[in-house]
Amino acid sequence: MDSKKDWHFGKKSKTLLSKRKKNKGNIHALNRLKKTDNVSILLPQIDTPEPSCHSPTYLQTNENNILNSDAEQIVEDNDIGYCFGKNVYDEIKFKLLTDHWSPDENYKFPITTHLKKNLKFQLGWIKRFPWVVYSRIGEQGAVCKYCAIFGREFGGKGSHQKLNTLVVKPFNNWKKAIEKFNEHSKTEFHKSNAMRADNFVAVYSKNCQNIIQKLDSARAIQIDQNRKRLIPIIKTIIICGRQEIALRGTSDYGPLSLDNSEPTYNDGNFRALLRMRISCEDKNLTYHIENQALNASYISPMIQNNFINICGKIIQDQLVNKINQAKCFSVLVDETTDVSRVEQLSLCVRYLDNNLNIEKNEINNYVLKEDFLQFVPVNSTTGQNLATVILVTLKNLGIKCDYLAKAMMAPQP
Fold this sequence. Notes:
The protein is an alpha+beta fold.
């Protein structure tokens, strides 16, 4: 047993000694690194939440001084290679499309040798193919600025063709440059991206509306046209109500005819007035009758009643506003029974209406007015119930009951 323990502890001590030797070797290696200068350290790429692209950056440390990389400097020069396979902000897209970096005549392009011939990028290609841009990021070469910014990962028919040069990396096979450029310019993928780029530049520079604004403007135009179609119909209803003319007739259903012939039956004053408007060349009404749908004519008796109720609500709101501005009013009520034997309470209001001069902002005179508000059905004609119905109705209409004048009639002798 003792020999086994000695052997076990001896093995453990040898392991500890070997670990110490390794640690000493690492410490010596670190000391040698500290004595050297200009050590290149490749830092791993860090994902950032911003929708921009950051290529792996080589940082140089010299006595803890961190310098900017060449890639970051190229980004500042609006190099098109900045957006390879990345999603960038609209501001950067606009700069890369309109103010991207372009080589001048003094720029020295890298030379490649092919069959003992020195080949390089030609500036004339940029004039011949306006979409060609030269990039200095990574492998220098030609890039399609439209496809690099707006291109997808796959293209071609059915989006099954893997994209490569000119889109996700530069093209630098100068022997086949013209052939490659002509082939790329004829693809549907390139044409669609060029169209996206032109539309993006126009929208971003506010020379045209985006799709949301176009949809909103189209909807606004449709609303305006629909309102113009309804104006003649509503004005006809208002004329009938102002002149106390009945709207309905014997048979007032169905579409309205556009010919000048009068029907053999009486279809009501409302439809007769509409035909008169059409004969007087009311363009909006004529266009509506010609292009109306059978379920959207807006001249049926139900629609007539809806328009009448809306007009009544507008008149009622105007009266309530005048009553509240007067700050003093009294209530006039009367009760009668309708044909269905329901007690109807007619509610009227007496108040002072001021004749206001808007230009001088002065009140010229006061006029005593009595206006009808509405009919209120009642189930009981007791004094308490009628008083409750009156106060509740005034409150629901928006009239301030604090301005209600309490008067008592003097007893007659």
